[in-house]
């Protein structure tokens, strides 16, 4: 009776802990998503705070030059030539919505995010001159401009390719009668985002490859003391978010000083990445040209690979964060994209990827199942040992090890499939979290595989108009995960020597995990359901074909004692 009470209390405590952890974690990330960026103390104590405008108000206050193709339109400020708007026409802000995703924003908006390029004679390379630019020629995807200041002639050509790349070619001509030293500068500025997903699965912040060295600094680390200071021969660097990337790219051949650091601003804290060339001496009547590339768009792996080859920038594909198991994650990522291109359904792609993964791991699963069947066949002999040596655990363990050796049974090989599947599962979980193909992908009644299941059994699937706490958002897919986990559990033979009380407690784990998985992305849950169903099929079907028999009779000899 006492054991039963302890078992019940333990189960209740575990359940409450799991629900509480899930609730507070979801509340934490929800609050981070809803709140705006925190203002630093220095900015809050300003006596004359800067009046900020919304993005649309700031855009309406300035004149712009527009470049546009079928998938992207960008706006250049007519005065500063900063790239201050990017609209991704192929991606919508909401599932089945009409408003396209908008990146970048003017400096005087409440969330600045822009790119800037130019030549400067400033010794520190920080201050770009303000020029009176004149448009010489313009098409939908190309603009030619010129300006003159203090005997220096500036020419700029801005091109937009057929996807998400802006190319800026700058030429400076020294029309004075003496030599001048110029630095070429490119900047990428972004307000410190308050909606960053701060977890171990995604890396959001500054990312780049400089001199073949991968660099990443999360937004969280940038709040501390971590900064980017590195010289490089070309390379790329930018701001990396879950699905989007804004990055400056430069082919090898130019030595650059790269800096990524925060700076104070009227609305909070800005993050600024600057790339400055070494001083370039331009003699009288001579010209110098340089080319920069700005990528602003989705992190589509095949497209990043094409730009890497075309522009000769190293490892541009690492903008997609493949994690520690990249040697597994990247092939699975490509397979998911390929299946999606074949069938036009990310949901079907996930199912096929799950089946393929199970097929690859099938030989290991068979080996583990053989071990489990052998252990089942040995149960009568193990029972005899327990009856004979139950009071002497050391002796019983020696006898059992001798029994395993005589029948060539490895009691731990049944765990091998689980151990091998752990990195595969983490890789798949990574794929489903970083793949932009998952974003707003519909499947059955779900409109977005990258979001949690919108159905809720506690509101009768939306019939009852109540908003419940996060841990009570229990949809159909989490329930299916729990049910299949329970079926898998009862179809799995109990491990030899397992404690009965622990076995009873484990029976409740599918129910507990059902609530834990309530806010997981449906794409992850779809994989889990398919994986559970395939595992159940393996456990039911394989024993009928393995036909494991133990023919050797045990030799009951007491192991020799070590001298």
Salient structural properties:
single chain, 563 residues, alpha+beta, 13-stranded antiparallel β-sheet, 4-stranded antiparallel β-sheet, 15 helices, 17 strands, elongated
Average predicted local confidence, pLDDT = 79
Low-confidence stretches: 21-48, 553-559
Shape: elongated
Q: Tally of extended strands?
A: 17
Largest sheet properties? 13 strands, antiparallel
**Helix percentage range:** 25-40%
Compute the CA-based radius of gyration. 31 Å
How many H/I helices? 15
What's the helix and strand layout?
Layout (H helix, E strand, L loop, with lengths): L1 H33 L6 H4 L10 H6 L3 E5 L3 E6 L5 E10 L7 E4 L9 E8 L13 E5 L3 E8 L2 E9 L4 E10 L5 E12 L13 E6 L2 E6 H4 L5 E13 L3 E22 L2 E10 L2 E3 L4 E12 L2 H11 L14 H18 L2 H15 L1 H16 L1 H11 L3 H14 L9 H19 L41 H16 L8 H7 L2 H8 L5 H25 L17
Antiparallel strand pairs: 1-2, 2-3, 3-4, 5-10, 6-7, 7-8, 8-9, 9-17, 10-15, 10-16, 11-12, 11-13, 13-14, 14-15, 14-17
Structure description:
- The chain has 563 residues and is of the alpha+beta class.
- It is 37% helix and 26% strand.
- The protein has 15 helices and 17 strands.
- It has helices spanning 2-34, 41-44, 55-60, 219-222, 301-311, 326-343, 346-360, 362-377, 379-389, 393-406, 416-434, 476-491, 500-506, 509-516, 522-546, and strands at residues 64-68, 72-77, 83-92, 100-103, 113-120, 134-138, 142-149, 152-160, 165-174, 180-191, 205-210, 213-218, 228-240, 244-265, 268-277, 280-282, 287-298.
- Strands 5, 6, 7, 8, 9, 10, 11, 12, 13, 14, 15, 16 and 17 form a 13-stranded antiparallel beta sheet that branches. It has a four-stranded antiparallel beta sheet with strand order 1-2-3-4, with no helix packed on it.
- The longest helix is centred in the N-terminal third of the chain and has 33 residues, at 2-34.
- It is elongated and about 105 Å long.
- It starts with a helix and ends in a 17-residue tail after the last helix.
- Mean pLDDT is 79; it is low at 21-48 and 553-559.
